Amino acid sequence: MTHAHSAAQLPVGNPVGLAAGSEMASDSAGGPILDRARHAAAEQQLGYAGNLSPHEALELVRAGLARLVDVRTPEERKFVGYVPDSVHVAWMTGTAFVRNPRFVRELEGKLRKEEVLLFLCRSGQRSVAAAEAATKAGFRNAFNVVEGFEGELDERRQRGVKGGWRLYGLPWIQD
């Protein structure tokens, strides 16, 4: 059984509002959100295009300007939940979290290098590494979604109460 969770009303027929097969953004698309992230990334000398909040990521995806790439393991997606219509390319695999040696090859098989890609993991850490690897492979619009799907650990070492896509009530489903 699939359960949908969202604080906002979503368009019927496309839970995230991403137009399938639509033209994706190039360097100049995305307006102020991507410009701000790119500027901050240049100042901080990041190895990828920049950082976005979960809300900014959703706005870009809904506008058809970006693709959300979930880099968590298949197990995380299955048991914790995932964003509808996100593209799955695992950065690490298995319960031991072994680096996926086919990551770039899988990314190249599913996405175009000129697309704006928003990388999402559990907390915003693995997605940084994935965005850096994608950038090195020629994906020049690789962004990290800070806080990830579940957010940071709190003082009790638990997730889900300190930021993250799911806590904010953004669209997600669980099998």
Summary keywords:
28% helix, 5 helices, single chain, two-stranded antiparallel sheet, globular, disordered N terminus, 9 strands, five-stranded parallel sheet, 175 residues, alpha/beta, Oxidized Rhodanese, domain 1
Topology:
Blueprint: E1 3-5, H1 31-44, E2 50-52, H2 54-62, E3 67-70, H3 74-80, E4 87-88, E5 92-93, E6 98-99, H4 103-110, E7 117-120, H5 126-136, E8 142-145, E9 172-174
Parallel strand pairs: 2-8, 3-4, 3-7, 7-8
Antiparallel strand pairs: 1-9, 5-6
Quick overview of this protein structure:
The protein is an alpha/beta fold. The chain contains five helices and nine strands. It has helices at residues 31-44, 54-62, 74-80, 103-110, 126-136; strands at 3-5, 50-52, 67-70, 87-88, 92-93, 98-99, 117-120, 142-145, 172-174.
